[in-house]
Amino acid sequence: MVQLPQQAPLGSFAGPAKLSVVKDLLNKLSEDIKSATLQSHERDRALEELKVYGRDSSYADPIFTKEGIETLSKHAFDSTSETTYRNALRVLCNALFLRPKTREIFVDLGYEMKACTKLKNDSRDDEFLASRLLLLTTYGTKIDLPALITHHQLANSITQNLSRHAARFASPAVDAGKTEPMEEMALAETLKLLFNVTNFAKAHINSFDAALPHVTTILCSYALPQSQTPLEPLFGLLINTLLNLDLTTPTAQSSIYPQTEPTRVTIRLLQLLDLSMKSYTDTSLDQSVTPLICALSAVHERAPKKTDKDTHTHTHTEDEYDDSTDPVRSLIRTALLPAEEDRKTVLGRADTLPSRLLRNWTNPLAPQFRGAVAHLYFDLSGRDAGRFIENVGYGYASGFLFENQIPVPAGAVEGGGGGGGREEGSSSRASAAAAAAAGRRPVNPITGQLLDEEKFAEIPEMTDEEKEREAERLFVLFERLRQTGIVSVVNPVATAVQEGRFEELPDDDEPAKKLD
């Protein structure tokens, strides 16, 4: 065996020499399991050395074999020394991360059950390491998550760890903006594990119902970041958790819409959205901000309906869009639907949160994000196509309605609402009259801009000579198009002449007599 000098720098070997050292270290650790040949400090140094070498899988193959994983697992789960088992857990975490095949080896050996037991310890180090091990085994293995939930208290352990974090954040003596690195790392791993387990074991999702109060406490108590990536890491993980859990249960409803402060969670989500839309670039929106939009949609959709104060039963109104007694829906609509400030120009051009969202409605670099935003606004409009057009303008609404095969209400945009012309169409005049009757300023149904804020270039009326030249130009263009043979077209100018609907100007520049 290679005798490691006590003062030798950790990880000082490379290439074949590293391979030899790794092999001898594992042999020593394997023999130690059988006959306790190593003293405590020697065992810990050997594992520390393996941890350093195991960060790079090259020339470290013995670590990733069945024998290597089993030796490390026995030290990780059978040792009573915290230093020993944590060093072994760190080597295992690196191994399962670097070589996916080791994950199945770990599960085949049955150590995922012991990892669940380790998860129960009231230690942030153990929480981090056990959570990461279990998280890695959810990828590419035959791990039986329902069995871990039912027989090995996986859901209870995750919930208990979240409750410890929530209690710390809720304490008035704790600065929510300052956390120990290991505490934050442990919380992140727990949230990742919670997301994966609820994603892969959907039939047991209600086992995690008790976790929601702790998730919302952390979400609302954790200090808002000032970085260019406000959703990373913790806020993004908390939001993903909301998307996976059942928000309709009594526990979920009381957590997300507490009676004393029903908009608490909603306010925090809107704050994060505002920060995110100022921070993330086009290429980051899909992955980073789309879940937040989906979370807001879920919170809006599942908000409690109007309740009869005497019977405590739900009262369904014919138009829940106008349910002013619902503070959550009202808050989201007020924050996200274009206000008068947005409508002073064409929608999407102001420096407000609704305008920033609308500007990304057609963003080719964020297809998932723009789809989520469109669905959210359709929900905010009570899933009514006419109201949807009224809220965002036909220019934004048309694509969504077409893609989802939703018919446009008759007369919703007929006449264009004065969209660039000098005269308003019939529906625009009707809309203006209706808006005036309701005490609102009328808007252009195409652009969403207030009609009285529209500005048009002062273009003088065309002279008869200009009209004739324009008619001749159009005649030539249509003739060229017809002669290409690509499409079959009829020259409308020639047709008008043949039908006698107008005649050429006389040479003395007298106005031509218009027949139609």
TrEMBL record:
It holds the Pfam family Ric8. GO terms for biological process: G protein-coupled receptor signaling pathway. Residues 427-439 have a biased composition (Low complexity). One of its GO terms (cellular component) is cytoplasm. Residues 304-325, 413-439 are annotated as: Disordered. It comes from the Eukaryota. Residues 304-318 have a biased composition (Basic and acidic residues). InterPro entries: Gua_nucleotide_exch_fac_Ric8. Keywords: Chaperone, Guanine-nucleotide releasing factor. The keyword Chaperone applies. GO terms for molecular function: G-protein alpha-subunit binding; guanyl-nucleotide exchange factor activity. Transmembrane segments: none annotated. The keyword Chaperone applies. Belongs to the synembryn family. This is Guanine nucleotide exchange factor synembryn-like protein.
